[in-house]
Amino acid sequence: MNLKHKTKVTFYNGLTTIGGPMIEVAYNDSHVLFDLGEVFKPDLELADESFQTLIDNQLIGDVPDFYDYHLTGKKLSDSHWKASAAYISHVHLDHSKALNLLDESVKLYTGPITASMLPVLNKDGNYLLPAAGKPKNYTRPIIAADLNVPIKVGDITLEIVPSDHDAYGATGLIIKTPDKKLAYTGDIRLHGYHPEWVEAFMHKGHGCDMLIIESTALSWPNENHSEEFTGPKNEDELIDRIVQYQIDNPKRQITFNTYISNVERILRIIKDSPRKVVLSAKRAEFLKLSIGVDVAYYYLPGEEIIPILRSDLEVDYNTLLADESEFLWQAVADFDKLKSGSLYIHSNAEPLGSFDPAYQPFVDTLEQHQVEVVMLRCSGHASASALEKIIRGFEPSVLVPVHSMHPELLENPCGSRLLPERNQVFTFE
Protein backbone atom coordinates (compact mmCIF):
# COMPACT_ATOMS: atom_id res chain seq x y z
CA MET A 1 0.00 0.00 0.00
CA ASN A 2 1.50 3.30 -1.10
CA LEU A 3 -0.26 6.07 0.81
CA LYS A 4 0.57 9.75 0.81
CA HIS A 5 0.44 10.10 4.58
CA LYS A 6 2.14 8.19 7.38
CA THR A 7 1.09 7.14 10.86
CA LYS A 8 2.95 9.03 13.58
CA VAL A 9 3.09 8.28 17.30
CA THR A 10 4.32 10.93 19.75
CA PHE A 11 5.22 9.96 23.31
CA TYR A 12 4.70 12.90 25.65
CA ASN A 13 4.74 11.45 29.17
CA GLY A 14 4.47 8.43 31.46
CA LEU A 15 7.31 6.49 29.88
CA THR A 16 9.71 5.85 32.77
CA THR A 17 7.28 6.67 35.56
CA ILE A 18 4.53 4.58 37.12
CA GLY A 19 1.53 6.29 35.60
CA GLY A 20 0.81 9.40 33.60
CA PRO A 21 1.04 8.07 30.04
CA MET A 22 0.18 10.66 27.38
CA ILE A 23 0.55 9.40 23.82
CA GLU A 24 -0.71 10.78 20.52
CA VAL A 25 -1.42 8.87 17.32
CA ALA A 26 -1.77 11.04 14.22
CA TYR A 27 -2.53 10.44 10.57
CA ASN A 28 -2.93 13.24 8.03
CA ASP A 29 -5.27 15.79 9.67
CA SER A 30 -6.61 13.44 12.38
CA HIS A 31 -5.16 12.76 15.82
CA VAL A 32 -6.07 11.09 19.12
CA LEU A 33 -4.58 11.39 22.61
CA PHE A 34 -4.49 8.81 25.44
CA ASP A 35 -4.49 8.83 28.53
CA LEU A 36 -5.02 12.06 30.55
CA GLY A 37 -3.45 11.31 33.91
CA GLU A 38 -0.96 12.96 36.23
CA VAL A 39 2.21 11.26 37.43
CA PHE A 40 2.02 10.60 41.19
CA LYS A 41 5.04 12.19 42.90
CA PRO A 42 4.02 13.38 46.38
CA ASP A 43 7.69 13.75 47.33
CA LEU A 44 7.87 16.88 45.14
CA GLU A 45 5.72 18.76 47.68
CA LEU A 46 4.49 21.21 45.05
CA ALA A 47 3.17 24.58 46.17
CA ASP A 48 0.32 24.30 43.68
CA GLU A 49 -1.04 22.19 40.83
CA SER A 50 -1.31 24.93 38.26
CA PHE A 51 -1.02 23.98 34.61
CA GLN A 52 2.48 25.42 34.26
CA THR A 53 3.66 23.78 37.49
CA LEU A 54 2.51 20.40 36.21
CA ILE A 55 4.24 20.97 32.87
CA ASP A 56 7.47 22.19 34.49
CA ASN A 57 7.64 19.14 36.77
CA GLN A 58 6.79 16.70 33.95
CA LEU A 59 3.69 15.49 35.76
CA ILE A 60 1.70 15.92 32.55
CA GLY A 61 2.87 16.04 28.95
CA ASP A 62 3.38 19.28 27.04
CA VAL A 63 0.90 18.24 24.35
CA PRO A 64 0.08 20.76 21.60
CA ASP A 65 -3.43 21.23 20.19
CA PHE A 66 -5.31 19.39 22.92
CA TYR A 67 -5.29 21.52 26.07
CA ASP A 68 -7.82 24.27 26.83
CA TYR A 69 -6.61 27.56 25.33
CA HIS A 70 -7.57 29.33 28.58
CA LEU A 71 -4.65 27.42 30.12
CA THR A 72 -2.15 27.55 27.28
CA GLY A 73 -3.04 30.90 25.73
CA LYS A 74 -2.97 29.16 22.34
CA LYS A 75 -5.98 28.33 20.20
CA LEU A 76 -6.19 24.81 18.82
CA SER A 77 -4.86 24.61 15.26
CA ASP A 78 -8.03 23.80 13.34
CA SER A 79 -6.28 24.86 10.15
CA HIS A 80 -4.28 21.62 10.40
CA TRP A 81 -6.34 19.24 12.54
CA LYS A 82 -9.77 18.44 11.13
CA ALA A 83 -10.56 15.61 13.58
CA SER A 84 -9.44 15.29 17.22
CA ALA A 85 -10.37 12.99 20.09
CA ALA A 86 -9.04 11.76 23.41
CA TYR A 87 -9.48 8.52 25.35
CA ILE A 88 -9.18 7.50 29.00
CA SER A 89 -8.65 3.83 29.86
CA HIS A 90 -9.89 3.91 33.47
CA VAL A 91 -10.62 6.14 36.46
CA HIS A 92 -7.30 5.98 38.34
CA LEU A 93 -5.81 9.45 38.74
CA ASP A 94 -2.59 8.61 36.94
CA HIS A 95 -4.76 8.06 33.85
CA SER A 96 -7.62 10.53 34.36
CA LYS A 97 -6.74 13.42 36.68
CA ALA A 98 -5.96 15.92 33.90
CA LEU A 99 -9.09 15.33 31.81
CA ASN A 100 -10.51 18.77 32.68
CA LEU A 101 -7.45 20.36 31.07
CA LEU A 102 -8.60 19.06 27.70
CA ASP A 103 -10.19 21.64 25.43
CA GLU A 104 -13.94 21.07 25.33
CA SER A 105 -13.95 21.11 21.54
CA VAL A 106 -12.12 17.76 21.70
CA LYS A 107 -14.39 14.75 22.20
CA LEU A 108 -13.38 12.59 25.15
CA TYR A 109 -14.25 8.88 25.03
CA THR A 110 -14.18 6.26 27.78
CA GLY A 111 -15.90 2.98 28.52
CA PRO A 112 -19.43 3.35 29.93
CA ILE A 113 -18.55 2.48 33.55
CA THR A 114 -15.64 4.91 33.60
CA ALA A 115 -17.87 7.63 32.15
CA SER A 116 -20.40 7.00 34.92
CA MET A 117 -17.89 6.89 37.77
CA LEU A 118 -15.69 9.91 37.01
CA PRO A 119 -18.27 12.66 37.66
CA VAL A 120 -19.30 10.92 40.89
CA LEU A 121 -15.70 10.66 42.08
CA ASN A 122 -15.30 14.38 41.38
CA LYS A 123 -18.64 15.56 42.77
CA ASP A 124 -16.92 17.35 45.68
CA GLY A 125 -14.15 18.71 43.46
CA ASN A 126 -11.41 16.71 45.15
CA TYR A 127 -10.60 14.14 42.47
CA LEU A 128 -9.80 15.79 39.14
CA LEU A 129 -7.78 18.89 38.35
CA PRO A 130 -10.15 21.85 37.96
CA ALA A 131 -11.22 23.17 34.56
CA ALA A 132 -10.38 26.79 33.76
CA GLY A 133 -13.23 29.13 34.68
CA LYS A 134 -15.46 26.34 35.99
CA PRO A 135 -16.63 25.36 39.50
CA LYS A 136 -14.22 23.14 41.40
CA ASN A 137 -16.51 20.11 41.11
CA TYR A 138 -17.04 20.46 37.36
CA THR A 139 -16.32 17.44 35.16
CA ARG A 140 -16.13 18.10 31.44
CA PRO A 141 -18.40 16.16 29.03
CA ILE A 142 -17.40 12.52 28.59
CA ILE A 143 -18.76 10.23 25.88
CA ALA A 144 -19.64 6.77 27.18
CA ALA A 145 -18.58 4.68 24.21
CA ASP A 146 -20.18 1.38 23.33
CA LEU A 147 -17.62 -1.37 23.83
CA ASN A 148 -16.30 -3.18 20.75
CA VAL A 149 -17.93 -0.63 18.42
CA PRO A 150 -15.69 1.39 16.03
CA ILE A 151 -15.48 5.17 16.53
CA LYS A 152 -14.46 7.30 13.56
CA VAL A 153 -12.10 10.21 14.19
CA GLY A 154 -11.39 11.42 10.68
CA ASP A 155 -8.90 8.98 9.15
CA ILE A 156 -8.47 7.14 12.46
CA THR A 157 -10.77 4.48 13.91
CA LEU A 158 -10.85 3.76 17.64
CA GLU A 159 -12.31 0.70 19.30
CA ILE A 160 -12.66 0.59 23.07
CA VAL A 161 -12.54 -2.97 24.39
CA PRO A 162 -13.11 -4.53 27.85
CA SER A 163 -9.98 -5.30 29.86
CA ASP A 164 -9.09 -6.19 33.44
CA HIS A 165 -7.48 -3.97 36.07
CA ASP A 166 -8.26 -3.14 39.70
CA ALA A 167 -10.30 -0.14 38.54
CA TYR A 168 -13.88 -1.10 37.75
CA GLY A 169 -14.71 -0.62 34.07
CA ALA A 170 -11.11 -0.54 32.81
CA THR A 171 -10.69 -0.80 29.05
CA GLY A 172 -8.04 -1.04 26.37
CA LEU A 173 -7.84 0.60 22.97
CA ILE A 174 -7.40 -0.55 19.37
CA ILE A 175 -6.33 2.24 17.00
CA LYS A 176 -6.50 1.84 13.23
CA THR A 177 -5.18 4.25 10.63
CA PRO A 178 -5.45 3.62 6.88
CA ASP A 179 -2.23 1.59 6.99
CA LYS A 180 -1.51 0.55 10.59
CA LYS A 181 -3.08 -1.11 13.62
CA LEU A 182 -1.96 -0.20 17.14
CA ALA A 183 -3.03 -1.41 20.57
CA TYR A 184 -2.79 0.40 23.90
CA THR A 185 -3.33 -1.68 27.03
CA GLY A 186 -3.90 1.01 29.64
CA ASP A 187 -3.31 -0.89 32.88
CA ILE A 188 -3.82 -4.62 32.46
CA ARG A 189 -3.51 -7.97 34.24
CA LEU A 190 -4.37 -11.66 33.83
CA HIS A 191 -5.04 -12.50 37.49
CA GLY A 192 -8.18 -10.42 37.97
CA TYR A 193 -11.86 -11.25 37.74
CA HIS A 194 -11.99 -11.26 33.94
CA PRO A 195 -8.90 -12.77 32.26
CA GLU A 196 -11.17 -13.80 29.39
CA TRP A 197 -11.64 -10.13 28.52
CA VAL A 198 -7.89 -9.70 28.24
CA GLU A 199 -7.66 -12.82 26.08
CA ALA A 200 -10.31 -11.37 23.75
CA PHE A 201 -8.40 -8.06 23.65
CA MET A 202 -5.23 -9.93 22.68
CA HIS A 203 -7.10 -11.78 19.94
CA LYS A 204 -8.58 -8.56 18.54
CA GLY A 205 -5.21 -6.81 18.56
CA HIS A 206 -3.21 -9.80 17.32
CA GLY A 207 -0.58 -8.94 14.75
CA CYS A 208 -0.70 -5.22 15.53
CA ASP A 209 2.00 -2.99 14.12
CA MET A 210 2.61 -1.50 17.58
CA LEU A 211 1.68 -2.55 21.10
CA ILE A 212 1.98 0.14 23.78
CA ILE A 213 1.92 -1.77 27.05
CA GLU A 214 2.23 -0.90 30.73
CA SER A 215 5.14 -2.65 32.43
CA THR A 216 4.74 -1.65 36.07
CA ALA A 217 5.86 -5.06 37.32
CA LEU A 218 9.41 -4.47 36.09
CA SER A 219 9.89 -1.33 38.17
CA TRP A 220 11.62 -3.13 41.07
CA PRO A 221 14.19 -5.49 39.50
CA ASN A 222 16.39 -5.69 42.60
CA GLU A 223 13.61 -6.69 44.96
CA ASN A 224 12.68 -10.35 45.29
CA HIS A 225 9.18 -9.48 46.44
CA SER A 226 8.15 -5.93 45.64
CA GLU A 227 5.38 -4.43 47.74
CA GLU A 228 3.15 -4.31 44.66
CA PHE A 229 3.18 -8.08 44.22
CA THR A 230 3.08 -9.46 47.76
CA GLY A 231 0.03 -11.28 49.03
CA PRO A 232 -2.72 -13.17 47.22
CA LYS A 233 -1.98 -14.27 43.67
CA ASN A 234 -5.43 -13.34 42.36
CA GLU A 235 -8.64 -11.60 43.37
CA ASP A 236 -10.47 -14.82 44.26
CA GLU A 237 -7.72 -15.80 46.70
CA LEU A 238 -7.89 -12.35 48.29
CA ILE A 239 -11.63 -12.67 48.92
CA ASP A 240 -11.10 -16.16 50.34
CA ARG A 241 -8.57 -14.78 52.83
CA ILE A 242 -10.92 -12.03 53.97
CA VAL A 243 -13.63 -14.62 54.52
CA GLN A 244 -11.21 -16.89 56.40
CA TYR A 245 -10.18 -14.09 58.77
CA GLN A 246 -13.83 -13.76 59.74
CA ILE A 247 -14.19 -17.51 60.27
CA ASP A 248 -10.99 -17.70 62.34
CA ASN A 249 -11.94 -14.74 64.55
CA PRO A 250 -15.57 -15.25 65.61
CA LYS A 251 -15.23 -12.97 68.66
CA ARG A 252 -13.06 -10.14 67.41
CA GLN A 253 -13.75 -6.73 65.94
CA ILE A 254 -12.76 -6.78 62.25
CA THR A 255 -12.56 -3.68 60.08
CA PHE A 256 -11.18 -3.09 56.60
CA ASN A 257 -10.72 -0.61 53.79
CA THR A 258 -10.34 -0.83 50.00
CA TYR A 259 -9.66 1.62 47.19
CA ILE A 260 -12.83 3.38 46.11
CA SER A 261 -12.67 2.48 42.41
CA ASN A 262 -12.11 -1.24 43.01
CA VAL A 263 -15.87 -1.72 42.94
CA GLU A 264 -15.87 -5.38 41.98
CA ARG A 265 -13.73 -6.27 45.00
CA ILE A 266 -16.08 -4.56 47.44
CA LEU A 267 -19.10 -6.20 45.82
CA ARG A 268 -17.45 -9.62 46.19
CA ILE A 269 -16.59 -8.91 49.82
CA ILE A 270 -20.23 -8.02 50.49
CA LYS A 271 -21.47 -11.12 48.67
CA ASP A 272 -19.12 -13.70 50.21
CA SER A 273 -18.56 -12.46 53.77
CA PRO A 274 -20.21 -14.42 56.61
CA ARG A 275 -20.56 -11.15 58.53
CA LYS A 276 -22.76 -8.26 57.47
CA VAL A 277 -20.60 -5.77 55.57
CA VAL A 278 -21.13 -2.10 56.40
CA LEU A 279 -19.54 0.73 54.42
CA SER A 280 -19.03 4.39 55.19
CA ALA A 281 -21.89 6.61 54.07
CA LYS A 282 -19.61 8.28 51.53
CA ARG A 283 -18.67 4.94 49.96
CA ALA A 284 -22.32 3.87 49.95
CA GLU A 285 -23.24 7.12 48.21
CA PHE A 286 -20.57 6.52 45.58
CA LEU A 287 -21.90 3.04 44.82
CA LYS A 288 -25.47 4.31 44.64
CA LEU A 289 -24.66 7.20 42.32
CA SER A 290 -22.21 5.39 40.04
CA ILE A 291 -23.72 1.91 39.65
CA GLY A 292 -27.10 2.11 41.41
CA VAL A 293 -26.32 -0.40 44.19
CA ASP A 294 -27.73 -0.04 47.73
CA VAL A 295 -25.52 -1.26 50.61
CA ALA A 296 -25.51 -1.12 54.41
CA TYR A 297 -23.74 1.98 55.71
CA TYR A 298 -22.96 4.14 58.73
CA TYR A 299 -22.48 7.84 59.39
CA LEU A 300 -19.51 9.23 61.26
CA PRO A 301 -20.45 11.67 64.05
CA GLY A 302 -21.51 15.00 62.57
CA GLU A 303 -21.85 13.79 58.99
CA GLU A 304 -24.73 15.20 56.99
CA ILE A 305 -27.57 12.91 56.01
CA ILE A 306 -27.34 11.71 52.40
CA PRO A 307 -30.92 11.67 51.07
CA ILE A 308 -30.38 9.03 48.38
CA LEU A 309 -29.31 6.40 50.94
CA ARG A 310 -32.04 4.11 52.24
CA SER A 311 -32.65 4.75 55.94
CA ASP A 312 -33.43 1.08 56.59
CA LEU A 313 -29.84 0.16 55.64
CA GLU A 314 -28.17 2.47 58.18
CA VAL A 315 -26.22 0.88 61.04
CA ASP A 316 -25.46 2.95 64.13
CA TYR A 317 -21.78 3.88 64.41
CA ASN A 318 -21.61 3.12 68.12
CA THR A 319 -23.01 -0.34 67.41
CA LEU A 320 -20.09 -0.95 65.07
CA LEU A 321 -17.52 0.35 67.55
CA ALA A 322 -18.84 -2.08 70.16
CA ASP A 323 -19.24 -5.07 67.84
CA GLU A 324 -17.03 -8.17 67.88
CA SER A 325 -18.97 -10.73 65.85
CA GLU A 326 -21.78 -9.46 63.63
CA PHE A 327 -20.16 -6.90 61.32
CA LEU A 328 -17.24 -6.47 58.96
CA TRP A 329 -17.09 -2.73 58.48
CA GLN A 330 -15.10 -0.16 56.56
CA ALA A 331 -12.95 1.98 58.84
CA VAL A 332 -12.11 5.40 57.41
CA ALA A 333 -11.55 7.57 60.51
CA ASP A 334 -11.38 7.47 64.33
CA PHE A 335 -8.82 4.67 64.24
CA ASP A 336 -8.02 5.40 67.88
CA LYS A 337 -11.56 4.26 68.73
CA LEU A 338 -11.08 0.75 67.37
CA LYS A 339 -10.92 -1.96 70.00
CA SER A 340 -7.51 -2.91 71.32
CA GLY A 341 -6.67 -6.32 69.91
CA SER A 342 -8.97 -5.88 66.92
CA LEU A 343 -8.04 -6.69 63.33
CA TYR A 344 -7.84 -4.18 60.48
CA ILE A 345 -7.48 -5.36 56.85
CA HIS A 346 -5.87 -2.82 54.49
CA SER A 347 -6.66 -3.99 50.94
CA ASN A 348 -5.01 -1.65 48.43
CA ALA A 349 -6.65 1.26 50.24
CA GLU A 350 -5.23 4.73 50.75
CA PRO A 351 -2.50 5.38 51.77
CA LEU A 352 -1.50 3.01 48.96
CA GLY A 353 1.98 1.95 50.08
CA SER A 354 5.37 2.88 51.48
CA PHE A 355 6.00 5.24 48.53
CA ASP A 356 3.29 7.49 50.00
CA PRO A 357 4.62 9.64 52.89
CA ALA A 358 1.28 9.19 54.69
CA TYR A 359 1.57 5.40 54.75
CA GLN A 360 3.96 4.67 57.63
CA PRO A 361 2.39 7.19 60.05
CA PHE A 362 -0.98 5.58 59.31
CA VAL A 363 0.31 2.11 60.13
CA ASP A 364 2.12 3.38 63.24
CA THR A 365 -1.11 4.94 64.56
CA LEU A 366 -2.96 1.64 64.32
CA GLU A 367 -0.18 -0.35 65.93
CA GLN A 368 0.11 2.17 68.78
CA HIS A 369 -3.52 1.38 69.60
CA GLN A 370 -2.82 -2.38 69.55
CA VAL A 371 -4.77 -2.91 66.35
CA GLU A 372 -3.37 -5.75 64.26
CA VAL A 373 -2.82 -4.57 60.68
CA VAL A 374 -3.06 -7.07 57.83
CA MET A 375 -2.04 -5.97 54.35
CA LEU A 376 -4.00 -7.87 51.72
CA ARG A 377 -2.90 -6.65 48.32
CA CYS A 378 -3.72 -7.93 44.87
CA SER A 379 -2.02 -5.94 42.16
CA GLY A 380 -3.88 -4.29 39.34
CA HIS A 381 -0.86 -4.86 37.12
CA ALA A 382 0.31 -7.90 35.19
CA SER A 383 3.28 -9.78 36.60
CA ALA A 384 6.46 -10.11 34.55
CA SER A 385 5.46 -13.57 33.32
CA ALA A 386 1.94 -12.38 32.48
CA LEU A 387 3.39 -9.47 30.50
CA GLU A 388 5.32 -11.96 28.40
CA LYS A 389 2.13 -13.94 27.76
CA ILE A 390 0.23 -10.80 26.82
CA ILE A 391 2.94 -9.73 24.38
CA ARG A 392 2.89 -13.13 22.70
CA GLY A 393 -0.90 -12.91 22.53
CA PHE A 394 -0.71 -9.62 20.64
CA GLU A 395 2.41 -10.59 18.64
CA PRO A 396 3.29 -6.97 17.81
CA SER A 397 5.81 -5.88 15.21
CA VAL A 398 6.93 -3.06 17.52
CA LEU A 399 6.67 -3.21 21.31
CA VAL A 400 6.63 -0.01 23.36
CA PRO A 401 6.80 -0.64 27.13
CA VAL A 402 5.70 2.39 29.18
CA HIS A 403 4.36 3.13 32.68
CA SER A 404 7.44 1.66 34.39
CA MET A 405 10.67 2.75 36.01
CA HIS A 406 12.48 0.07 34.00
CA PRO A 407 10.71 -0.43 30.67
CA GLU A 408 14.00 -1.57 29.16
CA LEU A 409 13.59 -4.90 30.96
CA LEU A 410 10.65 -5.91 28.78
CA GLU A 411 11.59 -7.66 25.55
CA ASN A 412 9.66 -8.33 22.35
CA PRO A 413 10.05 -11.94 21.19
CA CYS A 414 7.86 -11.14 18.18
CA GLY A 415 9.72 -8.21 16.66
CA SER A 416 11.47 -4.96 17.57
CA ARG A 417 11.24 -2.78 20.67
CA LEU A 418 11.08 0.99 21.05
CA LEU A 419 12.11 2.78 24.24
CA PRO A 420 11.02 6.34 23.47
CA GLU A 421 12.11 9.49 25.23
CA ARG A 422 9.65 12.22 26.20
CA ASN A 423 8.32 14.10 23.15
CA GLN A 424 9.86 11.61 20.74
CA VAL A 425 7.99 11.10 17.45
CA PHE A 426 7.94 7.66 15.84
CA THR A 427 6.92 7.59 12.16
CA PHE A 428 5.92 4.34 10.52
CA GLU A 429 7.66 3.89 7.16
UniProtKB/TrEMBL annotation:
Pfam families, sorted: Lactamase_B_2 (PF12706)
Keyword Hydrolase: yes
UniProt keyword annotation of Acetylation present: no
MF term (GO), any: RNA binding
CDD domains: metallo-hydrolase-like_MBL-fold (cd07732)
Top-level taxon in the UniProt lineage: Bacteria
Keywords linked to the UniProt accession: Exonuclease, Hydrolase, Nuclease, RNA-binding
Positions of the Metallo-beta-lactamase domain: 19-225
Stated name of the protein: Metallo-beta-lactamase domain-containing protein
Organism in which the protein naturally occurs: Lactobacillus iners LactinV 01V1-a
